[in-house]
Automatic annotation (TrEMBL):
Top-level lineage group: Bacteria
Keyword terms of this UniProt record: Aminopeptidase, Hydrolase, Metal-binding, Protease
Residues of the signal peptide: none
Source organism per UniProt: Halomonas marinisediminis
Pfam family, one: Peptidase_M24_C
Descriptive protein name: Aminopeptidase P family protein
GO MF annotation list: aminopeptidase activity
Domain Peptidase M24 per the UniProt entry, residue ranges: 316-529
Domain Peptidase M24 C-terminal, first and last residues per copy: 542-601
InterPro entries: Creatin/AminoP/Spt16_N (IPR029149), Creatinase/aminopeptidase-like (IPR036005), Creatinase_N (IPR000587), Pept_M24 (IPR000994), Pept_M24B (IPR033740), Peptidase_M24_C (IPR032416), X-Pro_aminopeptidase_P (IPR050422)
Start and end residues of each Creatinase N-terminal domain: 11-134
Entry's family note: Belongs to the peptidase M24B family.
């Protein structure tokens, strides 16, 4: 297509033209890639390119007459603004109604219509849902085309950065040991083969890391695990000879990324494959021999990866000290700059945080886009300051800072509130109630194996008591120098209560309740916690949370009178630990700032 497609409206018109050429009545474009990734290489960021909405999650559906992007409450304001004038509507996705876009199509398309999508980027589970919803009303599905290729002339190429081995000092298992655990799970299902496409699982199993995806140290790859073999499919030239030899010694062969589908098609048709429908795409399933038997089960490596070993947790604790020290240096600078009247913007916050983290040991990159959001911008849970649109931090109000780092010894994610000028009584009340939610869940004891979504209400209870709430989940799993959002556990009232979401020892999860007032301010306070054994009980095994994050919670944002004695004691104990562990890493202004911000509440 030769014409310049400079606006979302132009791109939408071009897509509809190509749809008519292929007799496709509706086009389905998720935020996904062949690996079911959350953070996408630019090549697969087609929904953002076509619609103009660049949030990390959203599904675009286009017919000849209408188009919409379905987003959850984190993105309502952002999507409405970015989609304005595009001819694409912002559609609100309510928790627990993930199939709403499919139902929308079922209501609008006549029997005999065709919904098109690229099967290579549609999860097998979503394709099954489409069949259940669209099939009974006579709507056909077609997955053999990627229409973006026809209208995106300068589409970015696939990344192919060099791979590297995770440093040996931060590993406590071998590749053969991890593969053996996967093969044991395969044997339980009677499976001969197990295709894996999720990038963090592949990085964990192979103990390799890469730089193909922003903020996550992973690389584009597929992995096929057999009873006695394993083959890693990566871009040619990304594995140096020495590393390839080390993989071969551990029983992992290397093959070209593009050979994945052909290799699957050549597998023996009379054997059996273990598939996880939520973590493989329809395209991968279609590449297997049609007559091949399939066992559908949860991907075993995802659970193994989620349960950190004691040695990994030791590295994470050290990483939290380095990260906390960097944050103290940053906050000392910020407080001094604001008090001296320097002009500080949200972009300056992002830059300075990155610089301070980079000064610490074993730092690799940020773990996600830093959210530095002043006053009204804080009401957008996934706000991102840009050179074209950002705020100067001046006057009175609240500054929300959500940031994180990738270190060889772990992944961090923390949100803190900063008072700027005078903080109002209403803002203090919101901050205090959010903190009460954070403390309530942090102090919880719970049975080992409980489904993580069931814990969500503990954090919401102090907010619900005053008729407040928030639209996002309370907590997500966090990787070990891997993705900052990691399963299988998720603390969210919108998540299914399923066996694979069970809380197990060693898991790392965020606790991050919030309150958002559109056009005014937003509040979120976030720590990472680890599941640890609780005291012995006559009623079975229980777990508790160990708070891993080390950084003061600014009490100047609080109405301390709203904290009960137990909550105040928790905060004082937390600050005492923060001071004890961070003080040896600091000096000068940063140490003075730490001392001031960790004083017990009784001392004011």
């Amino acid at each position: 297509m030769s014409q310049v497609l400079s606006t979302p409206a132009d791109r939408l018109a071009a897509l509809r033209t190509v749809m008519r050429e292929h007799a496709i009545d509706a086009w389905w474009l998720p935020s996904s890639d062949p690996h079911n990734s959350e953070y996408l290489p630019e090549h697969w960021a087609g929904r953002a390119w076509l619609s103009g909405f660049d949030g990390s999650v959203g599904t675009l559906v286009v017919t000849q007459e209408a188009a919409g992007v379905w987003v959850d409450s984190r993105y309502f304001v952002q999507a409405e603004a970015q989609l304005a004038g595009s001819g694409i509507a912002m559609m609100k996705l309510v928790q627990g109604q993930a199939t709403a876009p499919m139902a929308w199509l079922a209501e609008r398309l006549p029997a005999g219509a065709t919904v098109g999508y690229d099967a290579q980027v549609v999860a097998l589970a979503h394709a099954s849902q489409m069949e259940e919803i669209l099939g009974p009303v006579g709507i056909a599905r077609r997955g053999d085309l990627d229409l973006l290729d026809a209208i995106w002339p300068d589409r970015p190429a696939l990344p192919a950065q060099p791979l590297y081995a995770q440093p040996a000092a931060f590993r406590d298992e071998t590749r053969p040991e991890r593969l053996a655990r996967v093969r044991a799970a395969m044997a339980e299902q009677g499976a001969d083969w197990h295709p894996i496409s999720t990038l963090d699982d592949i990085a964990w199993l192979t103990q390799l890391r890469g730089d193909d995806v922003a903020y996550n140290p992973v690389f584009l790859a597929h992995l096929l695990v057999g009873r006695d073999t394993a083959t890693l499919f990566v871009a040619p030239g990304t594995v140096e000879a020495e590393l390839e030899a080390a993989l071969a010694a551990d029983g992992i062969a290397v093959a070209p990324y593009d050979a994945w589908r052909a290799h699957l098609a050549a597998l023996p048709a009379d054997e059996r494959a273990l598939l996880d429908p939520a973590r493989l795409t329809l395209g991968t399933r279609q590449a297997l021999p049609a007559e091949m038997a399939v066992a559908e089960a949860f991907q075993p490596s995802t659970l193994d990866k989620g349960c950190k070993t004691d040695q990994e947790l030791t590295h994470v604790r050290r990483t939290m000290e380095a990260d906390g020290a960097a944050l103290c240096r940053f906050f000392a600078w910020l407080e001094r700059a604001l008090s001296e009247g320097e002009r500080v913007t949200e972009l300056d916050v992002e830059t300075r945080l990155r610089e301070e983290r980079a000064r610490g040991p074993h730092f690799v990159s940020e773990s996600f886009n830093t959210i530095a959001a002043f006053n009204a911008n804080g009401a957008l849970p996934h706000y991102r300051a840009t050179p074209e649109a950002h705020a100067v931090i001046e006057g009175d109000g609240l500054l929300l800072i959500d940031s994180g780092g990738q270190y060889h010894g772990g992944t961090t994610d923390i949100t803190r509130m900063v008072p700027v000028g005078e903080v109002s009584a209403a803002q203090r009340e919101d901050c205090s109630l959010v903190l009460k939610g954070t403390i309530a869940l942090s102090r919880a004891r719970f049975p080992q194996g409980i489904a993580a979504p069931r814990l969500d209400a503990i954090a919401r209870a102090p907010l619900w008591a005053t008729s407040r709430d928030y639209g996002h989940g309370t907590g997500h799993g966090v990787g070990y120098f891997l993705n900052v959002h990691e399963g299988p556990q998720v603390i969210s009232i919108g998540a299914p209560v399923a066996p694979h979401t069970a809380m197990r020892e060693g898991m790392i999860t965020s606790i991050e309740p919030g309150v958002y007032r559109p056009g005014q301010w937003g509040v979120r306070i976030e720590n990472l916690v680890a599941n640890r054994p609780a005291e012995a009980s006559d009623f079975g095994d229980f777990l508790r949370f160990e708070t891993l994050t080390l950084c003061p919670i600014d009490t100047r944002c609080l109405d301390v009178a709203l904290l009960d004695a137990a909550e105040a004691a928790w905060l004082d104990a937390y600050h005492a630990e923060v001071y004890e562990r961070l003080a040896p890493h600091l000096e000068g202004d940063a140490l003075a700032w730490l001392e001031a911000r960790t004083r017990p509440l009784a001392r004011g």
